Amino acid sequence: MRTIHLSYPDHLHVDHLESSVCAIGFFDGIHKGHQHVIQTAKDVAQKSNKKLAVMTFNPHPLSVISNGKKAVSYLTTLTQKEAILNDLGVDLLYVVDFNHELARLSAESFIDTFIIQLDITHLVCGFDFTYGHKGKGNVSTLPEHANERFSLTVVEKYSEDNEKVSSSWIRQKLQAGEMQQVKHLLTRPLMTTGKVVHGYKRGRLIGYPTANIAIEKNQALPRTGVYYVTVKIDGKEIHGMANLGYNPTFQDDDLNQFIKLEVHLLDFDGHLYDQTLTVSWHEFVRPEYKFDHVDQLVERIKQDEQEIRQIFS
């Protein structure tokens, strides 16, 4: 897959441009609904013997339009999005830098600049796709702005259990700890990436050493608690139990106000400091508790380990 970064108004030229069928959208999470849009574009591309392209935006338009006042938590980082789209058989990925200049671009000019100039011969979008200044462009205005220069497919709402499958709905599932449902809607577990950093080494003292992971900024996270997770190390998937939370048992921690991700890897012995790990979330085990004594915490962790081993055995 070829990834091409574009920025309006200065960086729009593409060398060796090939005509394509393009699915357009933000595609956070690349969930079942998004995959339906992309598969529709793939079918058209194969029938017309064209390249399959996807156009996405970075960062999220809301974070730019609000001048950073509204934080956006991403179900997929851009790097994860690239890997998933590559696996889906995408040939060209256009990553458009969403900046204030682009936000002011009229709907008609957006089509001229990003669809016509990129030789997109067929555009595929979801029923609720908007474009241009203040989102004034939509699926009703697309035929007029296309002006017969490209053809168009609008994909209808994709629903499950009478609910539109959306990134916001999946975030609600995350906050409820419904990891199996999240996995079902994404068609893969939620993945969180971060670098292993030095912690207080309390886990080692109680017989459960943990990898303390500094979570990359703006990643969507599940509710706090204990989880069954996996981590891929040197190509091998390692089972583990993760605690996401504030370590309430240790009130002397000056950093208690910051959420922390600690992962104890089962049947693993090795050094992970400064490595970047990706944690895959599989199942919520229990909420995070404050224990009166460390011994109580250790006993509960032992129970957690037994429960998690039963899940994957």
TrEMBL record:
It comes from the Bacteria. Catalyzes the phosphorylation of riboflavin to FMN followed by the adenylation of FMN to FAD. It catalyses: FMN + ATP + H(+) = FAD + diphosphate; riboflavin + ATP = FMN + ADP + H(+). InterPro entries: FAD_synthase, Riboflavin_kinase, Riboflavin_kinase_bac, Riboflavin_kinase_bac/euk, Riboflavin_kinase_dom_sf, Rossmann-like_a/b/a_fold. Its EC number is 2.7.1.26, 2.7.7.2. Belongs to the ribF family. It is an enzyme of class 2 (transferase). GO terms for biological process: FAD biosynthetic process; FMN biosynthetic process; riboflavin biosynthetic process. Residues 185-313 form the Riboflavin kinase domain. Pathway: Cofactor biosynthesis; FAD biosynthesis; FAD from FMN: step 1/1; Cofactor biosynthesis; FMN biosynthesis; FMN from riboflavin (ATP route): step 1/1. This is Riboflavin biosynthesis protein. SUPFAM superfamilies: Nucleotidylyl transferase, Riboflavin kinase-like. The lineage of its organism: Bacteria, Bacillati, Bacillota, Bacilli, Bacillales. Keywords: ATP-binding, FAD, Flavoprotein, FMN, Kinase, Multifunctional enzyme, Nucleotide-binding, Nucleotidyltransferase, Transferase. The keyword Ubl conjugation does not apply. It holds the Pfam family FAD_syn.
